[in-house]
Design goal:
about 180 residues, Rossmann fold, about 40% helix, 7 helices, 6-stranded parallel β-sheet, alpha/beta, about 15% strand
């Protein structure tokens, strides 16, 4: 588990919603075509488990803001039970403002993971930001956290597990909680 500074741990504790980009985060950024010309994308099942674990262990929902507007992504969103889905969103910051208003949240309560230039503004405005190991260099320079994993290869899961670890660790160190250990897994 990544060791976080006290400042970053405090940011994690404020998180109430995790938002993500799709291509380059939940996928490897590649677009594959079958012989028949069908577009395909590779999603990591581990990332999907990260969405589920955030929901189950912390009651934190995951939202998806993407420039993509495809049936493939819509089906993945449906399978993961993601309700905050914004396809075709090239300019992502206005979507963030709408989400904040609708959910009565502040930017400090948002975690965002992105990988490319169209994620920059929303990452700069989010309480906690992260990127895959293979993100565009300017994104790596502004992210609070750079994942060890690449996009489509567990970067989202790694981010989710960091949030889970530090939020549960806080709870379990209170008098209501128990000692840290197997509850994480």
């Amino acid at each position: 588990m990544k060791k976080l500074s006290k400042e970053l741990i405090e940011k994690v504790h404020r998180i109430k919603l995790v938002l993500t980009d799709c291509d380059g985060v939940l996928t490897d950024g590649g677009i594959y075509y079958s012989k028949q010309g069908e577009e395909m994308k590779l999603f990591s099942a581990r990332d999907g488990m990260g969405v589920e674990r955030l929901r189950k262990l912390l009651n934190i929902e995951t939202g998806l803001i993407t420039g993509e507007n495809s049936e493939i992504v819509r089906r993945r969103v449906e399978k993961l039970g993601i309700r905050e889905y914004h396809p075709g969103s090239i300019d992502k910051y206005p979507i963030l403002k709408k989400i904040l208003k609708n959910r009565n949240l502040s930017t400090e309560e948002i975690a965002y993971i992105g990988d490319d230039s169209n994620d920059m503004e929303i990452m700069q405005q989010s309480g906690l930001s992260a990127c895959p190991a293979d993100a565009f260099m300017p994104i790596r320079e502004i992210a609070h956290l750079i994942m060890d994993n690449k996009g489509g290869q567990g970067a989202f899961r790694e981010f989710a597990e960091i949030i889970i670890y530090y939020k549960k660790r806080n709870y379990e160190n209170t008098k209501e909680g128990t000692s840290w250990g197997s509850h994480y897994w």
